Amino acid sequence: MTIADIKKTAETKMAKSIDALKNDLQKIRTGRAHPGILDQVSVDYYGSMVPISQVANVSLLDARTISVQPWEKGLGAKIEKAIRESDLGLNPASQGDLIRVPMPALTEERRRDLTKVVRHAGEDAKVAVRNLRREANEHLKKLLKEKAVTEDDERRAQDEVQKLTDRTVAEVDKLVHAKEAEIMAV
Q: Phi and psi of 61, rounded to 5°?
């Protein structure tokens, strides 16, 4: 493994950490409706649990209402029950084959709780990034120990890994700050 390989691997893994954080933040609901909120809700479909998006069309009716259109007639009640029993605090209403899921307004206390959840997710992402930095530095030290690289090259590579870590942590902070602002906006 060369220095370039180590840096490339660290960069790829850090980018995946950012993507995972974005995915986690997307699931945290704000006052606005977002079809991705229902991604983690599963429905019983012929004996197996599948995400709602695989058995119904999930879209937005307006800024505060999600519509769920089941592809099969008998699934409406099961989907409605799955949404109601999820820990999202949503109360779906059936209108024929269409299920409307209104997003309740968030209270000030709930908004503060959600910002804590966002900060915690951001902190977890930073820990993951720092672990990747440590891993890359260990690989670099191993190369130095095997005399595959010079001390100067190893030091330079460690500095570059640190700069990459700093950029990634700054991006995490930016994402967390944007999500907090989105949650606190009334």
A: -85, -45
pLDDT at 54: 85
Give the mean model confidence (pLDDT) for residues 48-75. 86
Give the Cα separation of 130 and 162 in Å (integer): 9
What region, left, alpha or beta, does residue 46 occupy, with left being phi > 0 and alpha being psi -120 to 50 degrees? left
Q: What is the CATH number of domain 3-27+107-184?
A: 1.10.132.20
Residues in a beta bridge with 59: 67
The torsion angles phi and psi of 46, rounded to 5 degrees, stand at: 50, 45
Q: What is the pTM of this model?
A: 0.70
Sign of the torsion formed by the C-alpha atoms of 28, 32, 37 and 38: positive
35-102 under CATH 3.30.1360.40, yes or no: yes
What is the rounded CA–CA span in Å between residue 67 and residue 85? 17
Residue 186 predicted with pLDDT over 70 = no
Cβ distance 26 to 34 under 8 Å?
yes
